[in-house]
Amino acid sequence: MAFMSVSRRSFLKLLGAVPVAAWGVGGRHSLLHAFAGDSQMPSKKTARVGLVHSPIYKKHVPHLSHPERPQRLDAIMEALAAPELAALLVAVQPRPATEAEIRLCHSADYVRQAKRDIQSGAETLSTGDTDVCRDSLEAALLAAGGVLAAVDAVVAGAVETAFCALRPPGHHATPDRGMGFCIFNNVAIAARYAQKKHGIARVLIADWDVHHGNGTQETFYEDGSVFFFSTHQSPWYPGTGSAAETGRGAGKGATLNCPFPAGTDGERIVAAFREKLLPVANAFKPELVLISAGFDSRHGDPLGMFHIRDEQFAELTAILRQIAGEHANGKVISVLEGGYSLEGLAAASAAHVRALAR
Ligand SMILES: [Zn+2]
Questions:
Q1: C-beta separation of 201 from 134 below 8 A
Q2: E-strand spans in the chain?
Q3: What would the mean pLDDT of 125-137 be, rounded to a whole number?
Q4: Which residue of 37, 124, 220, 342 has the smallest Cβ count within 10 Å?
Q5: Average pLDDT over residues 251-273
Q6: pTM of the model
Q7: Choosing from 29, 53, 106, 172, which is the catalytic residue?
Q8: Is the predicted pLDDT of residue 196 greater than 60, yes or no?
Q9: Domains defined for the chain, CATH in brackets
């Protein structure tokens, strides 16, 4: 693995790694302790997992009682500070996305409108149901840029996989419209960036959020170079994602939707990944695998009625790692989308990150 050949100092510099204490999670279980000596290095069979996070992600504050709240990230970061998980993680420092990078997926008109809404002190984006505050633009740019930092780290071989614990989420944001708690489409921008910056030809985006990732689908609907696969509740917000939506033109066949009714359990979702996604992914041969990791499909989430259990999120992760292992040199980047039970987010994220490392 590449990390064995770089010095600790240059490796940290490459990643812009910071002590976990700087994130306000307590320094005792510093993520950096994996570097303390060879005896504490993860075994060669264990992938090093990059972790993208920043306290700035908590500066995006929707109205009181909104489910997409800053405390979601506290719950995740506390869970990931457990020693067995912290030992697997390497901090990857996020950076703000540039406007040119945001415009890889969003129209100039929408970017201007979103900026105007936020800077004018609006409480909601004029394009849709996304609460904002004056710091939302800073958080949204750092969220999109955080995934780009993860792309750079994974492509450089500094880490094999990465989890981006960020907000606002992104998968409902279309090229010209923020909606569904999303401002910019973090995962879509990352796919385009990986293609443009790193010459990656084919990207798979798998979305297990309980809601259909309409923004991601729309972005790549006529583009055969990014395959979009989604399992989601139907009928449910935002109303798109029927099995008949399969792409158009050059994108025909590169969108695969698996809608399921309320009450669906995790076994059926795992089966969809295994039976529907695996064969098409093996034909598509992605050079990078991105995950829209929404944990509102977990059992007990207040905004969804699926029953995926933590060990099944681990199974879904393992299937995607298998695809990446065969075609993408193991490169998997997971990006937080929904998930509104704090306890559920903590448990599911821990299971997911463990599986990203296995
Ligand atoms: Zn969702």
A1: no
A2: 49-52, 89-92, 161-164, 203-207, 226-233, 255-260, 288-293, 332-336
A3: 96
A4: 37
A5: 98
A6: 0.89
A7: 172
A8: yes
A9: 2-357 (3.40.800.20)
